[in-house]
Design goal:
about 120 residues, alpha+beta, three-stranded antiparallel beta sheet, 3 helices, globular
């Protein structure tokens, strides 16, 4: 089993939700909210584009919220994955990549703290 560490230097990461009038949601994470929203506006991922085209939505129809602010990327990834799984269980997520529940294991870092690492 090979593990790839997700822990990186301290970096503020935003977990955000795009909620459509249909109640469907897209969950994402970014370190630059303004840039990420512009990328959704000008080149949305296929799941978002397909949903918007199907329902005739404009970008102004989407409710945007920052759900969490994380200081470490390992924590951000874990929280984002948990939110995607939770919304998927409710049947209201547009994300196409649904993370498995046990993709991560907890490890002790050289600093003495613990964080999650991804199993690849």
């Amino acid at each position: 089993m090979i593990c790839r560490e997700l822990y990186t230097e301290r970096e503020t990461t935003f977990i955000y939700k795009l909620k459509f009038p249909s109640n469907m949601c897209y969950i994402g994470k970014t370190t630059n909210m303004e840039q990420r929203l512009k990328s959704h506006l000008y080149s949305p991922n296929p799941a978002i584009k397909e949903h918007m085209d199907k329902h005739g939505y404009e970008f102004d129809d989407i409710e945007i919220s920052i759900e969490r602010v994380c200081l470490f990327s390992g924590s951000a990834k874990r929280i984002e994955d948990g939110m995607i799984r939770r919304y998927n269980e409710l049947g209201i997520v547009l994300n196409r990549r649904i993370p498995k529940k046990n993709e991560y294991i907890e490890v002790k870092l050289p600093t003495g703290k613990t964080d999650l690492v991804r199993i690849s």
